[in-house]
Amino acid sequence: MTDHIETDVVIIGAGPVGLFAVFELGLLDIKCHLIDILPKVGGQCAELYPEKPIYDIPGFPMVTGQGLVDNLMSQIEPFNATFHLNEMVESLEVLGTPEAPLFRVKTSENGTTFTCKAVIIAAGGGSFQPKKPPIDNIEAYEGTSVFYAVRKMEMFRNKKVLIVGGGDSALDWTVNLQPIAKRLTLLHRRDAFRAAPHTVEKMRSLVAAGDMDLHLGQVSALKGNNHVLEGAVVRKDDGSEHLVDCDVMLPFFGLTMKLGPIGEWGLNLHENLIPVDTEKFETNVPGIFAIGDINTYPGKLKLILSGFHEGALAAQKVHRYVYPEKRLLFQYTTSSTSLQKKLGVAA
Amino acid sequence: MGVIHVTDRTGQRHTLEAVEGWRVMEIIRDWGLPIEGLCGGACECATCHVFVSEGWVDKLYPATDEEEDQLDTVVTKPNSRLSCQILWSPELDGLEVTLAPTGE
């Protein structure tokens, strides 16, 4: 089913900077929808370093990545933004004019379309995607014999499955696919696993019972024909190589960030970053803004606090697009009853 | 003062002036060589993966468990390290590393 949503602003990326933009827009009565490819909010803070302490957020001598995200979520709660997680923005089409911008945004997963008056790109390093191992010719097997995610387990019934990796995804799929696979082999670079201990234990007992194989080493080459995998050459640390017989390979090497479809929206790019002005943080396309790590301008610092500032300034210009007739009065949350009402804290 | 030698993914070798107290990833990035360093040196992404040349491996502090966990997410060799976890000091003058390949 395809949904269509009309809103003021679509924010691409639900990292800290995208989240705080909700706050700045909300104070100006601007409604927004956020889209993120991850299944959770918080971007890099939540995905890469949830437990890492951050020391340079103003007012917080120390806060963890996840702690910051949780605080931002409660800070923006009064504005009821809608989140579309697990979705990637595929296309961004300009419908309006530079004076009265209008956009159509389309996501890939559910095919949701949005019509909005402004778009704020807060996509950090781009979209999180599975890390692809640098193995010669791996592309030739992608989608036929090499998969970076399991969508339907049935696909692997009676197959000789090679899973590569040592984290939760690798181990979870090892124990889940082992019962239906013809033979399952887990390959990891060392005999230590960072996955949940009980899953590791389960895998060890399957190996001990002879119900699956565990190999230590790295895939150095793939063997096969016509997009169909026949085996993987595994190199051990001592340099010796052997062939693992397999029909499919599932590498689980975690996530990395790629610019993705953003590169195809007609925006000026400079080394995978989006140049913006420093008054409104608007791109070369009026009505499309870029804030946070994804933008660039003279003196840019990739700091979360810079992204917060950029969001606040972008919101001022967005207001002009959303409410062209309204004069914008600059107010403080400490003194403005109208802002306090929006925040639900008015006396 | 001292230098590090970095071979890029095209095989070209660069000699870079090093700064005491900087991470090797930061030195490489500061000189503009293509090293991603996505997480900014927090040992959370493995995009600064390098191969350390023979003779230098043993001169480095061994990898922590945290670094080993991240090395699990790339295709390693026995001389693999994350360059964000190598703090440059004058004892590492002449350190020789090669940027590891990245997947598409």
Question: What does the secondary structure layout of this molecule look like, with pairings?
Answer:
The complex is a heterodimer of chains A (347) and B (104).
Chain A: E1 4-6, E2 9-12, H1 16-27, E3 32-35, H2 43-47, E4 53-54, E5 63-64, H3 65-76, E6 82-84, E7 89-94, E8 103-107, E9 113-116, E10 118-121, E11 127-130, E12 160-164, H4 168-177, E13 183-188, H5 197-208, E14 213-216, E15 218-225, E16 228-235, E17 241-245, E18 248-251, E19 255-258, E20 274-275, E21 288-290, E22 295-296, H6 304-322, H7 337-342
Parallel strand pairs in A: 1-9, 2-3, 2-10, 3-6, 10-21, 12-13, 12-18, 13-14, 20-22
Antiparallel strand pairs in A: 4-5, 7-8, 8-9, 11-19, 15-16, 16-17
Helix pairs in contact in A: 1-3, 1-6, 4-5
Chain B: E1 2-7, E2 13-18, H1 24-30, E3 49-52, H2 65-71, E4 80-82, E5 95-99
Parallel strand pairs in B: 1-5
Antiparallel strand pairs in B: 1-2, 3-4, 3-5
Protein name (chain A): Ferredoxin--NADP reductase
Pfam families (chain A): Pyr_redox_2 (PF07992)
Keywords (chain A): FAD, Flavoprotein, NADP, Oxidoreductase
Description:
The complex is a heterodimer of chains A (347) and B (104). Chain A has 347 residues and is of the alpha/beta class. Chain A folds into two domains: 4-129 and 256-342, 3-Layer(bba) Sandwich (FAD/NAD(P)-binding domain); 132-253, FAD/NAD(P)-binding domain (3-Layer(bba) Sandwich). Chain A is built from seven helices and 22 strands. In chain A, the strands form seven sheets. A five-stranded parallel beta sheet of chain A has the order 6-3-2-10-21, covered by helices on one side. Chain A has a four-stranded mixed beta sheet with strand order 1-9-8-7, with no helix packed on it. In chain A, strands 14-13-12-18 form a four-stranded parallel beta sheet, covered by helices on one side. In chain A, α1 (16-27) packs parallel to α3 and α1 runs parallel beside α6 (304-322). Chain A is elongated, with a radius of gyration of 24 Å. The model of chain A has no long low-confidence stretch (mean pLDDT 95). Chain B starts with a strand and ends in a 5-residue tail after the last strand. Chain B is of the alpha+beta class and 104 residues long. Chain B has one domain (2-99): Ubiquitin-like (UB roll). The A-B interface holds A 44, 48-49, 52, 125, 131-135, 138-139, 165-167, 188-190, 192, 194, 218-219, 237, 253-254, 256-257, 302 and B 38-40, 42, 44-47, 68-69, 71-78, 100-104.
